[in-house]
């Protein structure tokens, strides 16, 4: 059976349409999952706005806007072609067919999804402006993340020097001696964009560094896509007219309702695994050795409730994000249907 590449293009459109709407809430979700300085979602929003302005909510957005389009094109391509293959000559797929196709899409998506999420999260957890940090360092004779070694004789003295300089405004400055310069890393490493972030990650940890958290992402995405596509297909099957083609308006409404509901269910179910993944990928200091170590240390220091931190934001964010995702996908597929007179995925399944 030949592959249908229309799903790949529709998935690309879907990915782009979902990012702009959901990224601000995604930033809050990631910071709640990985940080300890917030008392809740509202506190996180207020502190982000006070420290970074509106731009803080869109930190790291340019990269996922492009990358998520590629990511979702792969997800929908694998899912729909796998589902069509499983259907064979059946009139409609069983729930087990949809679940298997979902698991296949989730497993394959990790190959490109892990680096995308890692870079996005590293940029999102930066709570200081890169430009302000560089400007502060330049005042004391440093450059983009470094202070001159001649001004810093030893670690303890360095800390005193920094605390009395303009860098003191930065949160928790950490100075580490490397060669002839002293890099200053407030809280997390500072990156001026996704390319620099990817380059530094590979330089420090090799290509495997881009796949940190891949195990946790598999734990999240394989069941996550089952709870994503199964409710979606069931709801779309129930909402779609049986005796005629759905109109453009009906398709738009149905895809938003079914997609949003499925997204809320999926993100709610997978939130603990998503928290572990986010913590592993935001960990630039090597605090966690792996999934199990992350779970043990998180519970030890912050209690089991840490895995539900940001739950409401994640579940709430899941509705508009997934509604926009499936809206973009279904409307694009309907365009192909009208031009080529070929059935949409819903027609194939139901």
- Gyration radius, to the nearest Å? 23 Å
Q: Which geometry do the CA atoms define?
A: globular
- Proportion of residues in helical segments: 55-70%
Mean pLDDT: 79
Q: How much of the residues is beta strand, in percent? A: under 5%
Put simply, the count of helices is 12
Name the poorly predicted regions. Answer: 143-188, 341-350
**Numbering strands along the chain, what is their spatial order in the largest sheet?**
1-2
Distance between the termini: 20 Å
Quick one: how many beta strands? 2
Global structural class:
mainly alpha
Task: Report the biggest beta sheet as strand number plus sense, adding barrel if it closes.
Answer: 2 strands, antiparallel
Provide the succession of SSEs. HHHHHEHEHHHHHH
Classify the oligomer: single chain
Topology:
Layout: H1 6-34, H2 41-52, H3 62-87, H4 95-124, H5 130-139, E1 146-148, H6 155-163, E2 181-183, H7 194-205, H8 214-239, H9 248-282, H10 291-302, H11 311-340, H12 345-349
Antiparallel strand pairs: 1-2
Compact overview of the structure:
With 350 residues, the chain is mainly alpha-helical. The chain has helices at residues 6-34, 41-52, 62-87, 95-124, 130-139, 155-163, 194-205, 214-239, 248-282, 291-302, 311-340, 345-349; strands spanning 146-148, 181-183. The protein is built from 12 helices and 2 strands, in the order αααααβαβαααααα.
Structural key phrases:
350 residues, mainly alpha, two-stranded antiparallel ribbon, 12 helices, globular, disordered C terminus
């Amino acid at each position: 059976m030949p592959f249908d590449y229309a799903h790949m293009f529709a998935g690309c459109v879907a990915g782009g349409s979902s990012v702009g709407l959901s990224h601000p809430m995604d930033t809050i979700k990631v910071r709640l999952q990985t940080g300890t300085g917030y008392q809740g979602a509202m506190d996180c929003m207020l502190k982000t706005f006070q420290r970074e302005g509106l731009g803080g909510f869109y930190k790291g957005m340019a990269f996922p806007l492009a990358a998520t389009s590629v990511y979702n094109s792969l997800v929908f391509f694998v899912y729909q072609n796998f589902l069509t293959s499983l259907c064979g000559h059946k009139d409609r797929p069983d729930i087990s067919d949809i679940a298997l196709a979902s698991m296949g899409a989730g497993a394959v998506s990790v190959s490109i999804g892990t680096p995308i999420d890692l870079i996005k999260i590293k940029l999102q957890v930066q709570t200081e402006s890169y430009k302000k940090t560089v400007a502060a360092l330049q005042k004391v004779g440093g450059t983009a993340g470094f202070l001159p070694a001649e001004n810093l004789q030893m670690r303890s003295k360095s800390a005193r020097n920094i605390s009395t300089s303009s860098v003191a405004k930065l949160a928790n400055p950490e100075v580490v001696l490397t060669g002839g310069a002293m890099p200053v890393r407030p809280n997390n490493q500072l990156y001026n964009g996704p390319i620099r972030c990817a380059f530094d990650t590979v330089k420090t940890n090799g290509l495997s560094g881009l796949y940190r958290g891949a195990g946790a992402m598999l734990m999240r995405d394989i069941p996550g896509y089952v709870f994503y596509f199964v409710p979606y297909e069931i709801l779309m099957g129930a909402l779609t007219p049986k005796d005629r083609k759905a109109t453009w308006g009906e398709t738009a409404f149905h895809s938003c309702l079914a997609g949003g509901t499925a997204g809320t269910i999926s993100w709610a179910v997978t939130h603990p695994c998503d928290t572990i993944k986010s913590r592993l990928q935001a960990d630039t200091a090597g605090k966690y050795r792996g999934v199990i170590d992350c779970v043990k240390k998180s519970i030890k220091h912050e209690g089991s409730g840490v895995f539900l931190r940001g739950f409401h934001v994640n579940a709430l964010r899941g509705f508009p994000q997934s509604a926009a995702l499936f809206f973009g996908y279904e409307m694009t597929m309907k365009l192909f249907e009208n031009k080529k007179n070929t059935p949409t995925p819903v027609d194939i399944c139901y």
